[in-house]
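Retro notes (design track)

What went well: tokenization of the new backbones is finally stable.
What didn't: we kept losing track of which sequence belonged to which structure.
Fix going forward: every design gets posted as structure first, then sequence, in one message. First example under the new rule, 334 residues:
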């Protein structure tokens, strides 16, 4: 099978430029990157680097995530308004520097990344990545709706460096580097619990940054408060008695103001809680280590005390019953 044709490989993709003559490598790498992500431009003004370009890409899906390990020589990669007009799926990218150094630029900010550091960027707006020498980066691309932070709040954090050596960022970086190891050796599994873990840690890291960067502005304060509320709800999802009033009291605001905060999500607070609970049950239902658990017990663990109501809510959200979903996902795993 020709490694130069990513579409020909189902699931896992490996493109190694070392398999072709040096004159073809840069174009081969650029083509692979475009196929795996969104339309991009890649170039190098150094003719010697271009003619002797060395690069590799390994990619595969993990739930709703597209996880890729990208290596190459010095290069600049950008996404301009022209590429966005060609194809705009609305995805978010997370870049984790594994080797070398990079600069990610978007929204008037530049994030200088060293190994272990990471940054997020939005494919709906122009951005650029500059690599001044040989590099390797883990890139995770995912739909915005899988992240518990809306696009307006995320915009304040794009192209911002998250240290891989402190805070929640260190935990997230460690997990993502472990992803890279398993991706490279072919043992990374396409399972929802793995993608949920990445998204949960990324949300926590973003929430931590919003709190640290409060500047007293009303809008920034509102966004940070909403993030704290979302994380509070996530920590209390298993409490069947969790109420809107309890959440409001815990954050020293009125129920009316709490509901107003959620208006931008086009969801009520109660509906948002229900959706997060259903996402949690879906994760557990696809986990082989919990295959011996009764479905009703999994629902109860996440606040669904009525088994019939749980089944109805699950089918409404995912178009399939909990038992059908478990059978489907566990059969794929085996």
């Amino acid at each position: 099978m020709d490694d130069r044709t990513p579409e020909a490989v189902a699931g896992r993709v490996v493109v190694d430029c070392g398999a072709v003559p040096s004159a073809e490598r840069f174009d081969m790498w650029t083509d692979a990157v475009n196929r795996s992500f969104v339309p991009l431009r890649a170039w190098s003004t150094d003719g010697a680097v271009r003619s002797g370009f060395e690069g590799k890409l390994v990619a595969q899906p993990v739930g709703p995530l597209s996880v890729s390990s990208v290596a190459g020589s010095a290069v600049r990669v950008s996404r301009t308004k022209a590429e966005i007009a060609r194809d705009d799926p609305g995805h978010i990218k997370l870049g984790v520097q594994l080797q070398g150094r990079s600069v990610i630029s978007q929204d008037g900010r530049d994030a200088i990344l060293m190994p272990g550091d990471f940054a997020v960027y939005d494919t709906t707006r122009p951005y650029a990545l500059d690599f001044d020498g040989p590099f390797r980066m883990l890139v995770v691309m995912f739909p915005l709706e899988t992240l518990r932070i809306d696009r307006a709040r995320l915009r304040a954090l794009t192209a911002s460096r998250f240290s891989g050596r402190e805070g929640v960022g260190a935990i997230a970086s460690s997990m993502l580097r472990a992803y890279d190891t398993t991706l490279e050796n072919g043992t990374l599994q396409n399972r929802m619990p793995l993608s949920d873990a990445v998204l949960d840690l990324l949300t926590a890291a973003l929430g931590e940054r919003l709190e640290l960067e409060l500047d007293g502005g009303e809008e920034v304060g509102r966004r940070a408060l909403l993030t704290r509320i979302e994380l509070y709800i996530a920590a209390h999802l298993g409490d069947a008695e969790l109420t809107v009033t309890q959440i409001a009291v815990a954050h020293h605001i009125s129920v009316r103001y709490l509901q107003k905060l959620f208006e931008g999500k086009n969801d009520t607070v109660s509906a948002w809680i229900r959706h997060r609970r259903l996402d949690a049950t879906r994760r557990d239902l696809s986990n082989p280590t919990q295959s011996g658990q009764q479905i009703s017990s999994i629902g109860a663990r996440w606040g669904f005390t009525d088994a019939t109501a749980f089944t109805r809510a699950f089918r409404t959200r995912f178009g399939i019953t909990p038992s059908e979903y478990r059978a489907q996902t566990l059969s794929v795993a085996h």
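Added context from the reviewer: The chain is about 45% helix and 20% strand.
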